[in-house]
């Protein structure tokens, strides 16, 4: 015979489930509602600058950022959460954070470790630039299908690549005007125009420094 039915509830957010992204975001929102009035700087960041479990924010003033950092740490401690993977383009900020809580060493000289990635975008904190890498197998001939495929690989959620994407889409527009079939090879002069464009794609860097 079966005994009494017992109900179990998870006290943590379990990743891997369909609802996990919602639960993670909703938990932070509730924390902000409950405790945000005591930490106004942190509250505005948790509402505006969080994507999943990453906080992407900053400040133009060092002292203000120090206060923001303190408020964020204090706010999340209210829910038993410890912030880690800190990264900054200012070494003074990282100096006040333990190595274990950092995601990047400002003084690291390794080319493989001088960037971090979030939201699909590569950021080089030391020289403050965003980098976009697109893998393209250069060839002499492309089809309209391949042109569209390459354009779709240019992931740009912040809109940095607007001028570049516009140029690519103008070329694609010409292919539609020419009424090429999907697998029909491009012919000159548009083939040369596309090849010249593709040759600029492997690595694109955009500096955030105003004096660069």
Topology summary:
Blueprint: H1 20-35, H2 40-48, E1 50-51, E2 54-55, H3 62-77, H4 91-95, E3 116-118, E4 121-124, E5 129-133, H5 144-152, H6 162-177, H7 190-198, E6 203-207
Antiparallel strand pairs: 1-2, 3-4, 4-5, 5-6
Helix pairs in contact: 1-2, 2-3, 5-6, 6-7
Pfam families: Peptidase_A17
Organism: Trichonephila clavipes
Protein name: Integrase catalytic domain-containing protein
Description:
This is Integrase catalytic domain-containing protein. InterPro entries: DNA/RNA_pol_sf, Retrotrans_Pao. Pfam families: Peptidase_A17 (PF05380). It comes from Trichonephila clavipes. By secondary structure, this protein is α+β, with helices and mostly antiparallel strands. The protein has 7 helices and 6 strands. The strands form 2 sheets. Strands 3-4-5-6 form a 4-stranded antiparallel β-sheet, with no helix packed on it. It has a two-stranded antiparallel sheet with strand order 1-2. Helix 2 (40-48) crosses helix 3 (62-77). The model has no long low-confidence stretch (mean pLDDT 85).
What would a concise description of this structure say?
The protein is α+β, with helices and mostly antiparallel strands.
What order do the SSEs take from the amino end to the carboxyl end, as H and E? Answer: HHEEHHEEEHHHE
Helical segment count:
7
Could you tell me the strand content as a percent range?
Answer: 5-15%
The tally of beta strands, per DSSP, is 6
Helix coverage percent? 25-40%
Radius of gyration: 24 Å
Mean pLDDT: 85
End-to-end C-alpha gap = 76 Å
Biggest β-sheet: count, sense, barrel? Answer: 4 strands, antiparallel
Kindly report the spatial arrangement of strands forming the biggest sheet. Answer: 3-4-5-6
Can you tell me the residue ranges where pLDDT is under 50 for at least 5 consecutive residues? none
Structural class: alpha+beta
Shape: extended
